[in-house]
Amino acid sequence: CFECCIKCLGGVPYASLVATILCFSGVALFCGCGHVALTGTVSILEQHFSTNSSDHALLSEVIQLMQYVIYGIASFFFLYGIILLAEGFYTTSAVKELHGEFKTTACGRCISGMFVFLTYVLGVAWLGVFGFSAVPVFMFYNIWSTCEVIKSLQTNMTASGDQICVDVRQYGIIPWNAVPGRACGPILENICNTNEFYMSYHLFIVACAGAGATVIALLIYMMATTYNYAVLKFKSREDCCTKF
């Protein structure tokens, strides 16, 4: 029984297992927190920066579309992570010859190569997602830092913060004719004190961290699948022993 357990543990693809756990965690954080943060962002814009619904109608449709895309991303990566983990078990067992003499087919090597290519493509795509998820963090950080400046002026009583403003129209998320489009002084400070702003800001940070974790998971997948494919292709050659 002990030898059987050791043999089974030897066939566990630990790299793929770690990558799967990290991928599931990262995608869950990105999708869950990103979905709620987008809803909070729309609420902040409607209440404080764009009172006319027609001004931000396009933005609302884009955000709603992004939320549907989030559902698709979560479903796809759940299935893809399980498939990659199963492929890791297959290749690890074949490479270590746990179930007898080494055997592989051209179809199996082709499938492994396809996963290598697809994982590389997804890794590059998620680098873009990671960079894109940092944009709302940057925007919310600018608003939060402006509120901190207003608070420090009021605390030190050095000057009035009424002339310090944040104009979200300059970010391009609402048109220039949106009313009021900006918030100044105490109004801006009240916005920063709302639960919607606090939650959306921190949820965007967590979503960005989740995207970063997913990128790391895909990098681990890249290394594991590339190594497994290379070993499978090498051991399938008839002269592998002399070449090695």
TrEMBL record:
The chain crosses the membrane at residues 12-45, 65-90, 111-135, 203-227. It is found in: Membrane. GO terms for cellular component: membrane raft; myelin sheath; plasma membrane. One of its GO terms (biological process) is central nervous system myelination. Keywords: Membrane, Transmembrane, Transmembrane helix. It is a multi-pass membrane protein. The keyword Plastid does not apply. The keyword Membrane applies. It holds the Pfam family Myelin_PLP. SMART domains: PLP. GO terms for molecular function: structural constituent of myelin sheath. Belongs to the myelin proteolipid protein family. PANTHER family: MYELIN PROTEOLIPID (PTHR11683), NEURONAL MEMBRANE GLYCOPROTEIN M6-B (PTHR11683:SF10). This is Glycoprotein M6B. It comes from Gopherus evgoodei. The lineage of its organism: Eukaryota, Metazoa, Chordata, Craniata, Vertebrata.
